[in-house]
Structure formats: structure tokens, C-alpha cells
Design brief:
The complex is a heterodimer of chains A (227) and B (260). Chain A is an alpha/beta fold and 227 residues long. Chain A has 7 helices and 9 strands; from the N terminus they run E-E-E-H-E-E-H-E-H-H-H-E-H-E-H-E. Chain A has a 5-stranded parallel beta sheet with strand order 6-7-8-3-9, sandwiched between helices. Chain A has a 4-stranded antiparallel beta sheet with strand order 2-1-4-5, covered by helices on one side. In chain A, helix 3 runs parallel beside helix 5. The longest helix of chain A is centred in the last third of the chain and has 16 residues. The model of chain A has no long low-confidence stretch (mean pLDDT 93). With 260 residues, chain B is an alpha/beta fold. Helix content of chain B is 41%, strand content 23%. In chain B, the strands form 2 sheets. Chain B has a 6-stranded mixed beta sheet with strand order 6-7-8-3-9-10, sandwiched between helices. In chain B, strands 2-1-4-5 form a 4-stranded antiparallel beta sheet, with helices on one face. In chain B, helix 5 packs across helix 6, helix 5 packs parallel to helix 7 and helix 6 crosses helix 7. Chain B starts with a helix and ends in a 5-residue tail after the last helix. The N terminus of chain B is likely disordered. The chains are: A alpha/beta (227), B alpha/beta (260). Chains A and B meet through strand 1 and helix 2 of A and helix 1, helix 8, helix 10 and helix 11 of B.
Amino acid sequence: MIRIENLSKSFTLHNQGGTVIPVMAGAALTVAKGECVGLIGQSGAGKSTLMRMVYGNYLTAGGRLFVGGIDVAQASPREIIRLRRETLGYVSQFLRVVPRVPTLDVVAEPLLALGTGVNQARDHAASLLTRLNIPERLWTLSPTTFSGGEQQRVNIARGFAHPYPALLLDEPTASLDAANREVVLTFIEEAKARGAAILGIFHDETARARVCDRLVDVTDFTPKAAA
Amino acid sequence: MTVQQTITTDQPLLRVDSLTKRYGARIGCADVSFDLYPGEVLGVVGESGSGKSTLLSCLAGHLSPDLGRISYDGRDVLAMSETERRRLGRTDWAYVHQNPRDGLRMGVSAGGNVGERLMAVGARHYGDIRAKATDWLGRVEIAADRIDDRPSAFSGGMQQRLQIARNLVTGPRLVFMDEPTGGLDVSVQARLLDLLRGLVRDLGLSVIIVTHDLAVVRLLAHRLMVMKSGRVIEQGLTDQVLDDPQAAYTQLLVSSVLQV
């Protein structure tokens, strides 16, 4: 489902003397349907950079990067928008939403974007929020005022609202208590069972051991010149 | 699935090819090309004087470009008669001005400002017009008891919201916006952003929005064009351009924003 070949990335800082920072070279990995692959490597090794390239958020310097048959490295913005709407979900560590939009609508939005009816989308959002223990009295409020753990759960509900065939998870259990962590791990297991290909960063080692089928150390992709 | 089908299968709604406008020897905008599809929001950013507003004015027919082509829904806009273009401006297109005074009739009531647009496209039943005007005033959070007041009695933020209601009430397909959230409170901006996102999603509305505000484009625009000295120096997916800017100027623009 996800196939990365010889991927490289560098940043050029034009306003700091044109410094070129190579951050990745020769990256390669695959994630099959129903498989969860965990990225490991110390902070700054390039885990998030790799995830952002897969999502089309960062441009690539070279190589190929297939998600469900589309080469994200070559795709037009329109193709990436469509890929994100239909195929590729992303749970980031940060919640970025229009202020004042109720939580229920924030979670329903990915479904509305796919043309699902409002009531059906809201019902599904409600069931996800219930499972994630977000009290119903908060559903009509904007998540911008929520605690860190609550915001993260709203993000997770959004990321799992549509059964994306491919999912990127950036520390999905980081600020959660034991009960909610269990819910999220169950979500991940359910997604795998329905055939989703998952690429994730998990600092939580027990969570990683439970859901990941394989681990890939991104330190192997760090350019030698920069190491 | 109707919205999605419009988004994914249709032809571009607007095609712009090598558009150039000069003011004497000075460049207004030069060699601008892009396609805009139904349901797509294109953000145009850049500093003052970068040509953003000139580009928007050329697209909307307020200025005549010197070179280039504009095609709307398969029709050559620059070859249209003035009458045809005016009809488009009343029906399919809407233009939200930076200064609400440029987009409103200051001597006509708020309800009249909205109702007038409906009448221009053929609405005649007074009760229906008033009901629809009240509905739209509500959507932009103007209280129903202000419907008979003139815009001159409104605050700047209310005037801007009224202008947006006036423009969107007829269900246009393409909306041009020039700094539409500039003078507004943050909370009102948020409400408008949500309203616009809903319209884009549900009606397949296409929008070209010119702004200084990178936070607004991040939340609203699918794609982003960065302009400098009249030329497009970078374009792409909005979050990609903001998070991994390639051009020196874009890097400066993005890094100059204060984090809140």
C-alpha cells in the first residue's frame, strides 16, 4: 500500500546564507495492507520528516513514494488533496481547526468532505467521541479550549472517522491515560484487521510492541555527511 | 457523493494563461497562469504591492489585462461583451471587496442590500426575498432586528459580514475575495471561515482569496500562490508551501509570522 524507494530530502535555508541541510538519503520501506510499521530512531533522525513527505506536506528531493498507486513525490496538489480525502489519513500531534467549530462537526468533517449526509456523519462522529470518552456536554464546544489529552482524542476521532486504506500516526497515545490509550490501541488493531496500512511513530514501547508488526530505524536513512 | 464527483471529475472552472497587466512601465502582474476547479479554494499571498489585487481585478473584469487568456466554464472571458460580463458578475460570480463600502450600497437598508442581489437574478416575491435576506443575515451573525438599518449605522466588521451575505445569497459559483477578513474580530473571522468552508464543501463553490493572513489561508485554501513583484514565485498545496517553502521570499514570509 505504501512503498518508498530511494527517497531523499534536504532543506535549503535561503535566509541563512543558503545553507543546505541534507536530512535523508536512500530511504526505503514498504507497508502492506493490514500491516503496521513503526519508525524508530532518536529525536532529529527524521521520523516526522519521513511521515510528512508521505503525506505530501514536505516536498521530496529525489526518489519515489507510492501510496495506493499514486507517486506522492510527483503528484499534483489536486491529486494529493484527493488522496488525503479518500485514501490517506493522518493523526498529527497537533489539532489545527477553525476556532468556534463544535467538536462534533470537527470530527464529522472528513466524512462530510466525502459526501456523507450530515446526520450520518454526526452519528458516526458521536460514536467515536463516546468510545474515546469525550463527555457529550463538550461536543457542542470548540476543541480549541480542551486539554491536551482531549484535543489529542479529538484528533484521533477525526483520523479514524473514515476507514482510510492508509494511515499515518504520529505518537497517537502520547498524552493519554491508560483507559484511553487502550481505546486507541483497539482502534489501530481494528484498522489493521480491515486491511489498513499503518505507518507510525510510537515512543510508548509497550504500545509499539503490541501494534507494530515491524520496526524501521530511520537512522539508516541519515545522510552519512551529516552524521 | 455529488460534491466529491464535482470536485474530481469536472473540467477547470477557471483557466488563466499568461495573464499580464502593466501600469506604464511598471508591472502590475506578469505571466500568471493557473487552473481553478469546482470546489477549490486558491489562496494568493504576498506583501503589499506584489500584484495580488491587480491579479484579482483582472480576473474579475475590473481591469483589462494587456496579455493572456482567461477562460470561465469554457468561455473566453476577455472576448465577452460588457453586457455578458456584467451578467456573469451578477449571477455566477461574486466579488468581496477589502473595504465593505466598495461592495455595499450605503444608502439602502441591510435587508435591501441582500435582497437587491436576489432581485437582480429574478426574485420578485417580497416575502421570500425578505425571508432569505433574514436567513443570510443570521448566517453572518447580524441580528434580525437590524435588517432595516442602513450599513452606515453598522460597525466595520458588521459591514464586512453584510457584504459577504450580499455576495453569497445568490449562490455564485466563483467568489473573488480581497482581504475579506482584514478588519474583523478573530471570533467573527472564525465564524466566516467556517461558513465559507461549508459552502465550498456543500455547494462546490470555488474561491480565489487574496490575503496577508497566512493563518486564514492555512485553514481555508487548498492551494496557495505566493506573489512577489507581480510574479508568482511559488505555488503548491497550502500546507506544503507554508511548512516546506522553497523560495527565499516565501521562507522569509513564513518565518516572519508571530506564533500565537
